[in-house]
Every structure is written in structure tokens, then in C-alpha cells.
Amino acid sequence: MSGLPDDGLVTFAREMLLERIAAARQSVWLVSPFLTRSVAERIRDVAERSPASERRLLTALSDRSVQVGVLDVGALSVLREAKFHLASIRNLHAKASIIDAEWGLVGSGNLTGSGLGGEQGGNVELGVTLSPSQVRAAAELVSGWWEKADPVDARVLESYASLPRLPRRPAQDGIGPVLQLGDTVALDRILAEDEATAQSRRYWIKSNYHRSDDEEWWHRSWISDWRQAPYEIGDLIVLYLSARDGGSANCPAVVRVTSPSVFNRQWVIEHRDAGAADKWPYVTKTALVAEVPIINGVPLSVAGKTGQSVQGGYCRITREEFERMAEAMRTASG
């Protein structure tokens, strides 16, 4: 794992869950009444790295959930194509994940961007990772539900895909504040590392342009450069949104390198567009470590850098400079 907590309370489950799915050896059991396409695609992408052959999603397929858009039929199809078996219990409300019958998470969050902390303005959620005995008990419960559930096949999905959409109830102002959300818990462990561990990797700041149509693109698990970058697996990269195209000129996220930088123009075409592939054809796979709302991003000056420092696309920083950025992110997340 990448410094993510393995037990106790969890407020942002997204990266912890995705890394567990990627590392699964035998089984991935997911339980959620709601599912969105963006989350389904991320689950599919990390599941492709796992040899686990037993893949299940237990959900609550109903006319209304599909028609108001909280359960996306296209998202179910994405997981089905990724070799997940689908089943439904109409009154299911539980949210749980069990990996290899060894690790489990139970919480309030659905498999949606707002439920897993993957969208700006997402929900305030709380979950807990399970002890070994609790994992066994939860697996027994979920297995029993699965036996009683109705399977969901391509024919069923096709019939639900044809349902007309219904408008959701208009949003109301409501009572109380909307809390600013940030996921910086992994930085606590990184900042507490011993010196040998801290010096075992390298640290970078990478410049990227702002995209108003995809403001949190770092959730897609890859970055790209105009030349082959010198990152090594395990390196930590602070992402900087330049002021170009209305960017915030600050650093809202940290990612960990999971693959070398390689020329892969076709990948950029398929996952973004041909124009980006012409400019930035070298792809590096990444995993999100920490983030704060863009409005709370950390300025380059915290690390003693300016925009000119990253004009070449990236610059290497010291552990001390990284720590200053990480501490500022923790403060910004509240």
C-alpha cells in the first residue's frame, strides 16, 4: 500500500479501496445501492491489474434509482464488461467492500464520486476498516445476501437502459454549512517516516494546465509529459495547476508514481484527445496520495519555487521542500 491507513476510521475511502482492488489476489466483493460511471471506470482500470477472478457487485436495481441517475446502467455495464458478476436486492442499503476475504470496509459512502470523496463538493462520509474477525462475519453476511439476490445480466441492463430519466428534486439551500473536503490523511504517515524511508524516493513538482471541463483530472491515475520524464516508481509528485486557461496557480494534489514514463501516444488519444497526444505523449501511471479543494491549493512559494521553476514541465525538490508543501496541504484541508 502507499501509506494509506489500513485500520480504523476512514473519511475518504476512494484511494484505499482502489489500491486494495488492484492488489486483490482472489476476490473482490463490492456492495453498494448506488454507482456512477466515473467510479465504475476507475474500478475497472484497477481491476485490470489484479488476477482476482471472483468479482462481484451487489446493488439495488430499481426503476427509480436508474431514472433519477443515482444508479447508472452504463456504469453497471462497465463493471460487467470487466468480468464482475452483478446481482440485485431491491431494498439493499448497505455499503461494504471485502477483498480476498481478508480486508473489509463498511461505511456510509456509495460507489459514487461524492460518496468516495472523488468530486468537488462531495459528501461528508465515515467508514471503518474491519478487524479479521469482522471481515469474516461481514463476508458471511454478504455471501448470504448474494445467494438470495437476483442476477443482473445484459438483457436486464438493456431493459433498464431504456427507461426515461426523471428529474431529481431541486436542490434546496438547507440548514448548516457545507464542509470543505480534503483528503490528506496519507500525508500524516509520510511526514512521520524515518529518514531512511524518506530518502528512499525522490520528490517532484509537475506543472499542468487547468481544464475547466475536467478540474480533477488527477483522479484518472496517469499524467503525461512532452518528453520522457525521469520519475521512478514510488516517487511523489506535487501537482501544480498553472495560471494558463484560468488555472489556480497552486498545488492541490500529490500523486505517487506507479510506472516509468513511456512513450504512449495512443493511450493519450484514447483517454484524452489527439491534440494532447501531440504535445504530451509520454505517459506515467500514478496513484492519488492526497488532495485539497482547488481553492485551497498550496502556492509554489511554500517550497521556494516560482512558475519559472517548472517551465520545463517539472522540477525536482528536496524532501524538506516536499514536507513544507505537505504540511501546508494538511493545514489547508482543515
Give a structural overview.
- It is a single chain.
- The strands form two sheets. This protein has an eight-stranded mixed beta sheet with strand order 1-7-6-5-2-3-4-8, with helices on both faces.
- α4 runs antiparallel to α7.
- The protein contains twelve helices and 15 strands.
- A hairpin with an 8-residue loop joins β11 and β12 (250-257).
- The protein is of the alpha+beta class and 334 residues long.
- The chain has two domains: 8-161, Endonuclease Chain A (Endonuclease, Chain A, 2-Layer Sandwich), CATH 3.30.870; 185-332, ph1033 like fold, CATH 3.10.590.10.
- The protein is globular and about 60 Å long.
- Helices cover 31% and strands 22% of the residues.
Strand content: 15-25%
Q: Unreliable stretches, pLDDT < 50, 5 or more residues?
A: 1-6
* Estimated structural class: alpha+beta
Instruction: Please tell me the overall pLDDT.
Output: 89
Task: Using the coordinates above, name the CATH class of the largest domain.
Answer: Alpha Beta
CATH topology of the largest domain: Endonuclease, Chain A
Please give the alpha-carbon distance between the first and last residues: 25 Å
CATH architecture of the largest domain: 2-Layer Sandwich
| CATH homology group of the largest domain | Endonuclease Chain A
H and E string: EHEHEHHEEEHEHEHHHEEEEEHHEEH
Largest beta sheet: strand ordering: 1-7-6-5-2-3-4-8
Number of helices: 12
Main beta sheet: 8 strands, mixed
Based on CA inertia axes, which overall geometry fits?
globular
What percent of residues adopt helix (DSSP H or I)? 25-40%
Using the CA coordinates, give the radius of gyration. 21 Å
Q: Please give the domain count.
A: 2
Total number of strands: 15
